[in-house]
Fold each of these.
Amino acid sequence: MNRTALPTVAYFCMEYGLDPSFHIYAGGLGILAGDYLKAAKEYSLPVIGIGIRWRQGYTHQEIGEDLKPYDIFYDHEYDFLKDTGIKVTVHVQNQQVSCKVWKVDAFGNVPLYLLDTYLPENEGAWITSQLYGRMGEERIAQEIVLGIGGVKALKAMGIQPDVYHFNEGHAVLAGFELIRQNMAEGMGFDRALEAARNKIVFTTHTPVIEGNESHPLNQMMYMGANNTLTHEQLYAIGGSPFNMTVAALRLSRISNAVSQLHCQTANDMWKHVNNRSEIIGITNGIHVPTWVDNNMLLAAEGHGDLWECHMNNKMKLIKFIKEKTGIIMNPNALLIGFGRRATAYKRHDLIFREPNTIFPLLKDKKLQIVFAGKAHPLDNAGKEIITNIVRISKQFPESVVFLENYDMNVGRLITRGADVWLNNPRRPMEACGTSGMKAAMNGVLNLSILDGWWAEACKHGVNGWQFGDGFTHPNQAVQDSHDSKALYQVLLNEVMPTYYHNRQKWIDMMRNSILSTKDRFNIRRMMEEYYSLMYIKND
């Protein structure tokens, strides 16, 4: 890619996972955004990040004596935040709210500018307190700060992006500010909209209609999110109720889904939306230096002992588990890793669906499973899933472990140290699933539903395994029953026999896993596709 005269991109995201110590991320969306900023720095790409300086960040989640997860919110201070000396103002409920702009470049990333309302002069200091803490009015206020405040901050700093990239629909109100600025220069609404649209691209991540955020139009007006636009203009952009994804699709010149399967799903989901941008597929990638043990890469290419390197990582995970829980796991027994947000469609407990099948393996210590993940503070179903797993861990304390307060560090340890990475969402509800990429490049073999990225990468029995054969069904009970039976069949008849009785084949599969994914699912490829297919105009 010719880096001369590349368009400058302002990348808007509600969260960024740059480092475990920096608590402004929740999960996969933020991890991708953090990897994006690191890749831009590594490859000298003209990118600026825009986000929010969350005072309390996402929930710190611990397991209580009743085995239930409880949310704790701490105030966090950081000595690496750089004061830009810039403040901008936004209006929330007809009140002027000041937003201080901080700069972060401490983690091998291009500049990330964070807006902060936690200021003594603000009645709206609460706005930038908790990431995803609430919905409704609080969420709209946060999106006013991110979108409207973010565009104003760029202007105040003299930064003139060629492209505004909205990573999910949270940043939609940035489009409203671009429209307002265009109208202030004398453009009519239609022309102002088209001029803004010409600079905006959008990434959608949510393959479930219900998961795409929406708000009543009157509430948007009341909060001031309209930013001088009329009720009718809001309706024309986002419909009623105002859907943030629909608005982003209409405000962008082009949009992307985050895997090829998700591209099909997204186009089907939004086929009824008129005047929307084209949705293309750009599969996510990961920042390899952040997530992958370089010794594993070298060993896969013939420069070291692959199994020895893997066992070193496995022992690091086992040591961590002992430090956190007191449980000593067996390094010679098959160890399955499962780490992601706890919510119903991801089906953390699918493997326990038939106790008569799985419990004897746990009792005999032929199978070990390490779980990790947080539930959204308002997701009671997700919290119940965690409680169920913790109960089972008490029943099989040497075979099942739940690591509380999942973060980047825990994710890195599991995706390096497990033998198998289990992924079993209800297809096609996992848009991509980058944790599986991290596992694959570390020689941790994927055992996964054909969803997200794995539908593109899987070579069954060669670089990992699939189960379920791409089966979907509108009845969740039918789909869950089918998938659990398929999981047991592959686990019992292929995964475990290979691990315990054909070590050479296992090592060959580890090598194939690394070599087949390290370039194809590297974030460098993703960035090149963003520029060639999204950022650079090809008309």
Amino acid sequence: MTTRAELADLLFPQVKESIDDLLAKYPPRPEGKVLRFAPSPTWYLHFGGLYTSFVGWKYAKQNEGKMLLRIEDTDQKREIEGATQLLITALQKFGIQFDEGPLSLEQEVGNYGPYVQSQRKSLYEVFAKHLVAQGLAYPCRMSEERLNEIREMQTASKQIPGIYGNYSEWRNKTPDELLEKFNAEDQTFPVLRFRSHGDTTKKIVFQDLIRGKISMIDNYNDIVLIKGDGLPTYHLAHIVDDTLMRVTTITRGEEWLTSVPLHLQLFEAFNLPAPEYCHLAPICKLDEGKKRKLSKRKDPEANVEFFFEAGYAPQALLEYIMTLADSSYEDWQRAHEDQTFLDFQFSLEKMNVSGALFDFVKLQNINNGYLSKLSTVELYEQGLAWAKDYHQELAELMEKYAEYTKAALNIERHTEKDPKRFTLYSDIEKNILFFYDEKRTEIKKSKPDFPEQIPLETWKAFAADYAENFSLDGEVTDRFDQLKLIGKKYGFAANNAEFKEGSFVGKVGDLAMFLRIQLCWAKQTPDLFSVMKVMGRERVKERILDL
């Protein structure tokens, strides 16, 4: 008679190590808290993934722990080529520095790897073999057709769906019966199912670091642990990986909350301590007045690339995420203006359990505040880095005219009248593009018209006079007085109170608008006289006369 240990040897003949052997290879860490971010390479980095990784990273850092990156690629049918590198690159852009994990497709750092699940197959087999030998897992060859039949029968009779108890036709077979079937039928590896208690009425109580004490139905299903391709499901893989990587705390989305009973059963089956679980509520948005989860199919902002391309600063986006994670952060920040979110000690217990609402207005305000505090050199360097990725033409101009660009960016910044006009890196284009002579012909095509009541000959006469006599020296008031003085010669009122229809051709404001249009080809620009000073006398003169 075949024993279960012999069955395990026959199913996993290549496995020679035990769980204890592996635990000795990956000893306990000295760090207090060890967390991980474990995305699947089935899509780009989702905003929810960024949120989850940030929470774990921040919690690890403030507890003098470690944060790991692990790529969960066992569902290879859904894997998208290049997605792993996209995930790694996106996280690096945000400055979320992992202590261990892949640095690229070819390189990783850390002593508890490999950190890509498809490279850890032999480790999963050790744990799977142990379960078979203990009678806690069994091979199963139920066809998809048979599984569908059972599901339909359960639905029709209003029974709890799943593969458990007598619904598993392989659960109670002896090792000899299993071997007989294995030898008689196809030799491919069958799926491996966990042998649960099968009691659909049993409840379990556990503690979640965010949600507190939770009571729910215990797992009763004989869940698949090893698929037909020999790779594990998430349920087994994360048990093995978190155990061997010595993870103490798991932050993940609330969609995994219902799996906790199964996962606790598995830890118990291996006689291993379970980590702390923290289940984060999803990021939500209002859609026609109704709250829903951020959708990767409906919402472009679900892809973090959206924020890069739009021109948000990664540091500002992380600060915004801090406000979503802990509502007390904003009050703290107002009281500690000289510090950043990196200094803030957030609490898992204060996290939103109903799903924080995404707020673009708040995000833009935070981004505007971040860019406004940068020195002009920093704004130039960060803006140039953005442009190199998303606006090559602008990047070439910024590099070609570096000092000229910095002077243009610096207009009115960090003054009492600072308009804080840069909310996004992409705002750099509309604020400085007109400074470049290379863009003159293109932008002039859409320049606004002058006030139509003023004849072109009047504009030409004023332009010729002003172009010869304007000054870039002195205070703004001096230069404005000069504008009024020259304009008076051509019938322009010095102010609105003085202006009367029929007595004047226009007001001094019309003159300022004329200069804006000639110099910047727009009605709304940075401070006019500051623009002129940056452009320099010859460029200003040439543009004024270009009628």
